[in-house]
Amino acid sequence: MCESHRRQVWLVTESSQAGGGPRNADTNAPHADQDAEFPGQVEILDAKTREKLCFLDKVEPHATIAEIKNLFTKTHPQWYPARQSLRLDPKGKSLKDEDVLQKLPVGTTATLYFRDLGAQISWVTVFLTEYAGPLFIYLLFYFRVPFIYGHKYDFTSSRHTVVHLACICHSFHYIKRLLETLFVHRFSHGTMPLRNIFKNCTYYWGFAAWMAYYINHPLYTPPTYGAQQVKLALAIFVICQLGNFSIHMALRDLRPAGSKTRKIPYPTKNPFTWLFLLVSCPNYTYEVGSWIGFAIMTQCLPVALFSLVGFTQMTIWAKGKHRSYLKEFRDYPPLRMPIIPFLL
Ligand SMILES: NC(=O)c1ccc[n+]([C@@H]2O[C@H](COP(=O)([O-])OP(=O)(O)OC[C@H]3O[C@@H](n4cnc5c(N)ncnc54)[C@H](OP(=O)(O)O)[C@@H]3O)[C@@H](O)[C@H]2O)c1
């Protein structure tokens, strides 16, 4: 409980003049409009038990949710700001860090509901772990390290060109993702729950091992239509990798460094970005295309399954992002679909 600390933890004690004028006559009225002045009390309740966890007095009207989180942390250090989800409704959406109390529809005392998001880990760490794993694991199978295919195959090399090409494509894909994570993406969220890393790594690492086992197997048979099939697949893979990278660059350019700005992405001079005319998440479209190319190249069932699972997951995300765009931007281009032009 932090009621005892209320004098120490208030943000700023504002005079009645502060915030631009006298308070509303009806201080119980919701303060959804910009000119309303927030009365200055915030109580934080546990979203599950409704137990009162904290009371902050004389809070500045312009205080943001990020500032409220910092104050809450002072009395509950185990819940650092990235772990906190503050909501207006126990089951509602989390408020954004940049939301300002004065602009929220709250009464005399703002009641916020707290949920613990669990231990957090930085997005960059998550992505680096997720992507370095498949890169490394695939190479173990490619080089046929001992205890995988039997002693007589230790450190031997496949006689099929496609196996070497597949290794180059697979490694290129994950090296590209690692470099993009470090130098291209501008994430709006600093952290994600630690438990997600176990789920995500199981997915990426597990599939990489399964695919690599079969592709690099001494009894692997090359694709049915030989070099023609491999060349076509390589072309699909390369085009989709270029497309995916182009979209990532276009998304990066939407957001100035250090900001969390979200804008409607539009096609640029780069023809690979023209897919933005038809879909909201062309980076996912190209990602799926890359894996289809890889599946055709290797003609390997686990690769086809990985493509299918990835496609399903990215379709779910693309639909969510598409819905958010429609909600957020009134002038959102009506022709766009989430991930597959005219279809899905
Ligand atoms: N094989 C698979 O199963 C699989 C699954 C998922 C992803 N991937 C790959 O990983 C890549 C990245 O995935 P992701 O889910 O992070 O992609 P994403 O949501 O499209 O985001 C890519 C980057 O662009 C930013 N961004 C997105 N929309 C924006 C907008 N309207 N305005 C400003 N910035 C915006 C994102 O910032 P925020 O932090 O704000 O989102 C993020 O930094 C994908 O393109 C794909 O290649 C592969």
From TrEMBL:
Principal subcellular localization: endoplasmic reticulum
InterPro entries noted in UniProt: 3-oxo-5_a-steroid_4-DH_C, SRD5A/TECR, TECR-like_N, Ubiquitin-like_domsf
Pfam families hit by this protein: Steroid_dh, TECR_N
Membrane topology note: Multi-pass membrane protein
Taxonomic superkingdom: Eukaryota
Keyword set includes Mitochondrion: no
Transmembrane spans: 121-143, 202-220, 232-251, 292-317
UniProt EC number: 1.3.1.93
Record-stated family: Belongs to the steroid 5-alpha reductase family.
Protein name as it appears in the record: very-long-chain enoyl-CoA reductase
